[in-house]
Description:
Blueprint: H1 16-29, E1 36-42, E2 45-51, E3 60-65, E4 68-73, E5 94-99, E6 104-112, E7 115-122
Antiparallel strand pairs: 1-2, 2-7, 3-4, 4-5, 6-7
Amino acid sequence: MAKLSFGAYPHMLGFEQLEKLLKRTEKSSNEGYPPFNIEQTSDRSFRISLAVAGFSEAELSITLENRQLVIQGKKHQETVTKIFLHRGIATRQFQRSFVLADGIEVGEAFMEIGLLQIDLVQNISTNIIQKIEIKTQQ
């Protein structure tokens, strides 16, 4: 990803937080686990699907803070010691982050056949025109 700096764009005011958010998200998106899909389910809706085989709903958490959707998985320690002859299903802890644009709302989340599904809906924004009064300085 090319380095993005809003200092080079003097007409874009107040976007410093977006730059920080992009840097934070870039760190978590470099790892490929767990794999995920993003599909468009209609003109204004999307679905994020994460492959979370081996995780229960109780071991997963989804939070939204400052337009950043964070999905975390943390396995509980098993009390029974298992002896694996081959271990190909990864169940290590993870964190995946997605930056949501203004107007994108998180719908429902559910588990289906080993996939964590998170629905997103894009609300239609209205164009607001505001007239600013010019006052005379004394």
